[in-house]
Amino acid sequence: MTTTPDATFENAYLTGQLRPTFPTLFETFGEANERVLSRLPFETDLVYGPHERQRYDLCASVASTQSVVVYLHAGYWQSRDKSQFRFLAERMHAAGLTLALVNYPLCPEVSVSYITQVVQEVIPAIQSRLSHLSQDTPWVLCGHSAGAHLAAEMALSLQHAPSSPNIQGVLGISGVYELSPLVHTSLNVKLKLDEQSAKAASVVRRIQGRLPPAIFATGELETTAFHQQSANIANAWQQAGNQSRHLILPNEDHFSILMRQEITDWLLELSRPI
Questions:
Q1: DSSP letters spanning 2-64
Q2: For the domain that residue 227 is a member of, what is the CATH number?
Q3: Tens-digit pLDDT profile for residues 82-134
Q4: Is residue 2 one of the residues assigned to a domain?
């Protein structure tokens, strides 16, 4: 593990991603979070495991559900909370999507590999809660930043699960799928990765065939490293015989990308049968 960040990696994965607009943007997120919580049919802090952060929020569509979206939040596996991203439910609910916003334990209390394993437990919990839905109801796994890594890991895990729901697609937003560069950043103070554990946690190295179609998206204003991360996993997805695309949204950064209508449009697209 490193305690002295490399300036190049630090800029690529942390300081180069920061924008002076973030404080105002996060205020906008907060106002929208309060609005949707008061207006939409949210069930909050539903339990999927014994850890205090094994909780999820559910915003179920009142109409016939077009798809179930499982959303894993950003925060480099060490910060943030599902409650900061409830605003995503507004457009999704209007489109007939049922949204589950998932929390998970954080580093340094636990390791990245532990998070990857324990977050899988949310799927049967959501299935039980939505037992009234048909087994043919499509599901889409969606994540942002660290959550995109977890969504990809979940897709791999569910590939072999006998009682897996109908996973129709994966949407990774501004994700990190190769963790080796993070060993050389200040983020590793809490991640506590070494070269071996970082490689083992890098989902891009383990992509297999028979995975659902995927979209990996980045904002135009993000660093080259983030664009490359998404391009690489999209390529690995394709090389394994799966369908995938890397899409770039103009004029968007690491967080403003979440405000775009295209996110909901892509989820609807991925929920449709091939």
A1: -SS--HHHHHHHTGGG--TTHHHHHHHHHHHHHHHHHHS-EEEEEESSSSTT-EEEEE--SS-
A2: 3.40.50.1820
A3: 999 999 999 999 999 999 999 999 999 999 999 999 999 999 999 999 999 99
A4: no
